Fold this protein.
Amino acid sequence: MANCILVLGESGTGKSTSIRNLDPKETAVINIIGKALPFKGWKQGYSMCTKDNPEGNMAVTDKSDSITKMLRYFAKRENIHHIVVDDFQYLLANEYMRRAKEKTYDKFTDIAQNAWSVINEAQELRKETNGLNVYFMSHLERDEAGNEKMKTIGKLLDRAITMEGLFSYVLFTVKDESGYHFLTQNNGHNTAKMPMGMFKDTLIDNDLALVAEAIKNYDL
C-alpha cells in the first residue's frame, strides 16, 4: 500500500524544491497548474507523458478523474517509486472557480468528494506491495491565533472533510535564517505529524529523498 505524505507551506518556502534529490528515473510529477519545477536542471530529468512519449514522467491536469488515471498509470510502472502531486490546493480552487456562479451548495460537497477520491486512490495504489510514496504538496492558511492548516476553499468544505486527517505523514515547511526545513511534529499551532521516533529532530532538511529513506527504514 502506498505511503501518502502531505507537505504544507506558504509559497516560496521549499515545497516543490524538496523534490530535487528524488531520482527522476524513479519519480513522476502530476503538476496541477503546470508550473516549472524550482531547481536547476529539472528539464533534463522530467518530460511530459503523452501518447508519443508514454515513458514520460510528468503530467499536467487539474481534473480529479484525470489525476486518478495518472496515479494509476504511473503506479503500474515498476520503476516509479515516488509520485508527486504538486499544488494540490488548486484542484479545489480551480474547480470552485469554474463553478463559482452555481447557486447551490452542492458544489462544496462535490469538490470535497473529488479531493477525497484522489487521496483515496493514492492510498490504494499497489495495495499488495510496498515501495511507493505519494507526496501531496499544498499551501497552508493561518488564522488570527496563528493556527495553521491546509488551505481549502472555506468552512463549508472543511465541514465535509479534514484533509490532514487522511494522512499519517504531515510535514510543514519552515524557512529561517539557516535555510529551508521540514517541521516533523506539531508545535501547538499546526497539524504536523510523523510516526513516533521516525525523526529525532523536530526540524529536518526539506528533502523528500531523506523523508522517503526514513519511511523505508522505520519498521526495520
